Amino acid sequence: MNTQQVRTRFAPSPTGYVHIGSLRTALFAFLYARHFGGVNVLRIEDTDQTRKVDGAIENLLQVMQALGVSFDEGVVLDDDQLKQEGEYGPYIQSERLEIYKEYSQKLLDQGKAYFCYCSPQRLTELRAEQTALKKPPMYDGACRYLTQEEREQKLEELELQGLSPVIRQKIPKDGITVLQDLIYGEIKYDNALLDDHILIKSDGFPTYHFAVVVDDHLMQITHVIRGEEWVPSTPKHILLYEAFGWDAPKFAHLPLILNPDKSKLSKRQGDVSLEDFLSKGYLPEALVNFIAFLGWNPKTEQELFSMDDLIANFDLVKVNKSGAVFDPVKLDWMNSLYIRQKSNQQILELVKPFLLDAQVKIEDYDEQFLLAIIEIEKDRLKILADITKHIDYYFAVPEYDSSILIWKKADAPTTLEVLTKLENHLKTFSEEQWFSLDMIESSIKQWIGDNGYDNGTVLWPLRVALSGLERSPNPFELLWVLYKKGQTAEDIFQRISQAISKLG
Ligand code: GLU
User: Fold this and answer.
1) What distance in Å separates the CA atoms of residue 176 and residue 392, rounded to the nearest whole number?
2) Residue 267 is a catalytic residue
């Protein structure tokens, strides 16, 4: 039995916001490590200094923290300060340049890598020629077999132009490289078709391909879990492991994420950034549950999985090869279920920032009133921000056009009569009645029956009088909530009087 401890890693480039796809990769690496009692490492891949964004690492870690994806080793956030923890550091690639230099030297010494002195201009021309001949662009190996003398001469020429050489991997000219992917199965590559790609750039920085292999090896990563877009790079990585004489880790490439129409997932930041989802009021637990299902399926009926459920059930064997559809409608549905699982008090705390943003002066109101609003509105919330769509009428006496007061089968005089009489009836309510939604409903229904009215003739104008809208919660709910505003029916009578004067 293999008792090697599982070590996974998430290795983002700090280029800005956190994409849905990145979170899926991070989540799967985390779940796999947790499921097998392993270690999850965070390594920052910042060798492309041009793409680096200040504050991106802190932001990334905050998003991960909000979602409950944690790291045991590598770059961590401690009291808002970035720190590195673990015995295989540094965990930020730009701090590991000496290591890459040392390892590239090993390959040079063994003849498994070589300096390339070709100028950018020559490479551009080469690429143009190959493209014109409809051949895949590939380095032609011009510097692969140079003599010592030729090398010195080429170096001199390059330096005269103020340039430095790069280091390329000497890919075997024949043979087959086999990737045994845990998700995609066996994929074979003809070495002759692989490029002598660059390992160290002219600025001394490693390429992603070189750094990823050196680091995954030195950090003793056992499982490389990453997006499907890295499959074509993997044979080069495997050949690098072979060149060093190292065992390669296991690879698991995760399926593409698609839009519902099966096109590749939108790149528009607002549609795919976790920061935006969180700020609109998607709950972290809903996002995690939803994203876990992008490519993974526990093969049971259960759809709601807490983080603990996910850890208990997760395995790479249950990850599919086919593209995973990102369905925003399903996310909304799942989010609304998670909202409903919370208590009214918890929902109130969660929606407070949205209410404040909408200029609602929540501190002016009784908490019982705010909780009553939540009780009535929570089933309508897909995201927390939705609360602001539904609440104006609770706080202020509504403005509306008098024409909407009259139910389609009634007329103005009847409506006026009904509201006047109903107002008197409501004045007889005791405090106990006002506090019970059931009693409000049964008393009004009884009154309608006793007076021989149609439900619509009464309930329609009552609802409009209270909400100013043709669509809103039913009038019993509105009465029940509005009474809680200051524990008096004053506001309610003000609204009914307004309707009566609009009709009169
Ligand atoms: N830095 C790469 C990225 O941001 C990591 C790929 C990998 O996991 O090997 O996608």
Assistant:
1) 68
2) yes
Set 134, 188, 262, 267: catalytic member: 267
Q: How far apart are CA 354 and CA 93, in angstroms?
A: 39
Of the candidates 276, 255, 380, the residue with the CA atom closest to the CA atom of residue 328 = 276
Ligand 1 pocket check for 377: Cβ under 6 Å: no
- Give the position of tokens 């809903």: 286
How many angstroms does the Cα of residue 44 sit away from the middle of ligand 1? 9
Report the pLDDT value the prediction gives residue 2, as an integer from 0 to 100: 54
- 483 φ/ψ angles, rounded to the nearest 5 degrees: -65, -30
pLDDT band at 251 (very low <50, low <70, confident <90, very high): very high
Tokens at residue 39, please? 């270690």
Q: Which residue is associated with the tokens 């001469």? A: 153
Residue 270 has pLDDT above 80, yes or no: no
- 187-222 pLDDT per residue, tens: 999 999 999 999 999 999 999 999 999 999 999 999
- Cα distances from 391 to residues 5, 245, 376, 467, in angstroms, run 53, 66, 11, 9
Model pTM above 0.85? yes
| CA–CA gap between residue 367 and residue 372 (Å, rounded) | 8
CA dist 449 and 461 (Å) reads: 17
Q: How many residues does the chain have?
A: 504
Q: Given a cut of 50, is residue 1 above it in pLDDT?
A: no
- Residue 11 Cβ < 6 Å to ligand 1: yes
446 vs 467: CA distance, rounded Å: 23
pLDDT category, 319, cuts 50, 70, 90? very high
Distant-in-sequence, close-in-space partners of 264: CB < 8 Å, separation ≥ 6: 256, 258
CA angle 238, 296, 336 (to 5 degrees): 140
In angstroms, what is the span from residue 79 Cα to ligand 1's centroid? 27
Output the six-digit token pair for 53.
Answer: 């964004």
Q: Which of 40, 44, 45 to mutate to test the pocket of ligand 1 (most atoms within 8 A of CB)?
A: 45
Distance from Cα 10 to the centre of ligand 1, integer Å: 8
Q: Where are the alpha helices (DSSP H) in 266-411?
A: 269-272, 274-280, 284-292, 307-313, 328-340, 344-357, 367-377, 392-395
DSSP 438: H
Joined together, the tokens standing for residue 102 give 């040392």
DSSP 17-73: S-BHHHHHHHHHHHHHHHHTT-EEEE-B----GGG--TTHHHHHHHHHHHHT---SE
